[in-house]
Amino acid sequence: MSDARVQPSGDQAPDPVDPHRWWALIVIGIAQLMVVLDATIVNVALPSAQRELHMSDNNRQWVITAYTLAFGGLLLLGGRVADLVGRKRTFVIGLIGFAVASGLGGAAGSSGMLFGARALQGVFAALLAPSALSLLSTTFTDPRERSRAFGVYGAIAGAGAAIGLLMGGILTEYLDWRWCLYVNILFAGAAVLGALTLLHDRPGHAEARLDLPGVVLGCGGLLALVYGVSEAEPRGWGSAMVLGLLGGSALLLAAFVLWQGRARTPLLPLHIVRDRNRAGSFLTMGMATLGMFGVFLFLTYYMQGILGYSPLRTGLAYLPISGAIILGSTQISARLLPLIPPRLLMAPGMLLAAAGMAVLTQLDTDSSYVSHLLPAELLLGLGLGCTFMPVISTATQGVAAYDSGVTSATVNTAQQVGGSIGTALLNTVATSVTSHYVRDHLHDPRMRRTVVREGVVHGFTTATWVAVGVMLLGALLAAVLVNMRPIRAEPAAPAAPAPAAES
């Protein structure tokens, strides 16, 4: 847990520089974009899919929940599988499986088939995401190049959700909702071709054994957590089912931690999360996505339900936040990370994102895009761009190659679980506040539409204040826990911070 620069151990030779590493970054970026945007691209298409497949209002949430449940719950397993059988092999399998599942979902003739296909997408995404990040961490060995590569990756991780909303609007409006799933076949096909020709990885550790009790306890605990949080919105946080799932999750995860301290080949070696820099990075990522996904949900409803935007116009309205995230990741974080400690990017980034959310708390039923939404998006995007890149880079810095897959999975788990909790928690706050507002202010039935609109916005702004608090807490955690020094290039030792696995 030292704050000194991480150096490779003396018994590990440095990896040769991959001459195709920048092309490899494009391949990894395509795969990561596909996984991230698939969490939101279906949102805009959901009303059309619901009408065509005759889903009930209670069941429609499973189009989203089936994906996040499988994805978030199985990430640790996917990361360890990548370490055991090889990252490139797991990456290609994940791509092919994701494409097949997307095709099944696009061809769905019933709601059950669509739900199953979305769950299958989540399973293969849990294989794909950690192997993509661990391939990136072992492909780029020079600290300055690593900063630029992680800047691109961080931009994709942050902007992918907003890009998904834009693509969902375009595909739904001009083609059909099914193309929000079919488009993944094009992404995956291009990435598979690139992976087979451009990515390189030494064999995995086939002689190792998978920690089966750890799989049951860890993945079971995460599945119960994500499922419990997803059910909190329709059932309420006080329902017996939600409380049972969350209580069961706490017990399973506590047992998982105890077991990991005893297992010969643990699913998640505890030294990964005991390191204060990684722990701070994981917590910061969770806080950032908790606030971000909730705000994306509110803004989508606000623009379509209150301002009357079409799906396409809603998607276009998110473009500034995507551009700001890309700018923050590639032009600010990537340039400064080799020069300053990561916390001096993470903490100010979270504060900037909190300021953007604070602007959103001033929305009313007729706020203009230019005066309120645009400034908030730019502040939020720049803040997230300055946060995601150093978080991902710090979390994967100096990890032994054998643990790179599970470490990458832990980063993705923090992001996925944070987003799931944020969506459920903030949406529950918003709907509760809205119902109380309408009940207290609806005195004249003729004013119902006006009062309901005001109540919805009041619920959104109240929940956004909660998101502001979460972002401020994330800034504090980053400032206190992360104490790593800048990772500068050493002229005499161009070795990789994370050497590749032994064969």
TrEMBL record:
UniProt membrane topology term: Multi-pass membrane protein
Source species: Streptomyces qinglanensis
PROSITE patterns: MFS, SUGAR_TRANSPORT_1
Any one GO BP annotation for this protein: response to antibiotic
PANTHER family noted in UniProt: BLR6921 PROTEIN, MAJOR FACILITATOR SUPERFAMILY MULTIDRUG TRANSPORTER MFSC
UniProt keyword annotation of Transport present: yes
Name listed for the protein in its UniProt record: Drug resistance transporter, EmrB/QacA subfamily
Superkingdom of the organism of origin: Bacteria
Domain Major facilitator superfamily (MFS) profile: 24-486
One MF annotation (Gene Ontology) recorded for this entry: transmembrane transporter activity
Location, primary (coarse class): membrane
Any one GO cellular component localisation term in the record: plasma membrane
A Pfam family matched in the record: MFS_1
Cell location: Cell membrane
Transmembrane residue ranges: 22-42, 62-79, 91-113, 119-138, 150-175, 181-200, 212-230, 236-259, 280-303, 315-337, 344-363, 369-392, 456-482
Keywords attached to this entry: Antibiotic resistance, Cell membrane, Membrane, Transmembrane, Transmembrane helix, Transport
Keyword match Cell membrane: yes
